[in-house]
Amino acid sequence: MPKKKYITKENVIMFPGTLERFKTQAHHYAENYQYDLAIEAFEKVLAYEEGDEQLLSAYAFSLFEVKRFEEARAICEELFAMGTDMYIEVMELYLSTCMELREFQHVEAIISQLMTENVIPPQSFEQFEHIRALNGRIAASERNKEEQTHVEEQLDESNYLLDAFFEQSLLKQVQLLRTLQQTNVRPIAKRLKNIIESEDVHPMVQSIALYILVEQEVSIYVEVSKFGHTELVNTATLVLPENMEIVARVLELVENKLEQEVSTCDMVQYLIARHVLVTYPFAWFDYEAEELVEGYIDYVHQMFGHPAQSNSELQNFFAELEKFSELPEARK
Predict the structure, then answer these.
(1) What predicted TM-score, i.e. pTM, was given to this entire model?
(2) How many C-beta atoms lie closer than 10 Å to residue 315's C-beta?
(3) CA quadruple 296, 301, 304, 306: dihedral sign
(4) Are residue 191 and residue 282 in the same domain, yes or no?
């Protein structure tokens, strides 16, 4: 009768069949999502022998699932070094691990190389495209978070107190508001409300502050007064100026009427964009879309030397909007 073979390491005796039992347990735990127990069993096996690709790939996956990403990546790299028939599966895990470690450029470089070298089989191409797209989205999101954090760190909320804000030039006021587009303005929403409601505020500055509150869907009531009109609005229920129905209607009519006059159309659209912002949230008050379109076409034609065709009241209104659409510093 042959003698049983014992496995020993550092004076520890492992009875025959013990390693196989650990392997079976490890795979069983991994298949049943008991990853901590699986890792413990895999590591008992690896303490006595080098793992094969089945064991190492299951071990790497278990490490990934418990967020031990550095270790999971190292095991994937070990599999690549030893050569594996599970290359595509291990590569997917490796790329996912690198994404968790925020190595987005590395992931993009590897996928680009794999595609260039035609390493990816047709049946796996869609999955790698998905990984690439996901990597790009996460990378972009991380960059946005970093930019927002940078802006928040540099934000001096005292700049938005009324006295400090209106001590600045109009151009500086606009610049202070523009910096808020990359950060959460809720902590200073009341200060923006005070700026909008101030008697000293320029209509364009007022509109930009209001735009930011609406864009970020901040819910706050603001009394807006400009060009002889006053209205109490909730910024959470307003739409942005470019999404207003009257604006869409006017632009549509302009494109239809000026299909053969490209230069005039471009100039009219430019004026509309400026005027809609400076009058926000009122747009053009009580004027109808058709009247506005005829008036804008006439206004631009006059700029090109043509005689006036529409009523002078509307032309004077456009001239006033032009005056407030451009800050004094910007005209120098």
Answers:
(1) 0.56
(2) 17
(3) negative
(4) no
Per-residue CA distances from 227 to 6, 91, 139, 206 (Å): 95, 63, 45, 12
Task: Report residues of the chain scoring pLDDT below 50.
Answer: 1-13, 330-332
Asked whether residue 2 is assigned to any structural domain, the reply reads no
Beta-ladder partners of 229: 226
DSSP H or E run through 9: strand 7-9
Q: What is the DSSP string of 271-299?
A: HHHHHHHHHTTSTTTT--HHHHHHHHHHH
Alpha-carbon distances of 109 from 47, 77, 98, 295, rounded to whole Å: 35, 16, 12, 55
Q: How far apart are CA 161 and CA 154, in angstroms?
A: 16
Same domain, 144 and 13: yes
- Integer distance in angstroms from the first to the last C-alpha of the chain? 105
| Interatomic CA distance for residues 149 and 86, integer angstroms | 41
Q: Residue with structure tokens 């999101």?
A: 141
Provide CB contacts within 8 A for 64, sequence distance 6+.
72, 93, 96, 97, 100
pLDDT recorded at residue 329: 52
Task: Give the domain extent around 138.
Answer: 7-149
CB 181 within 8 A of CB 151: no
Farthest CA pair distance, the chain: 118
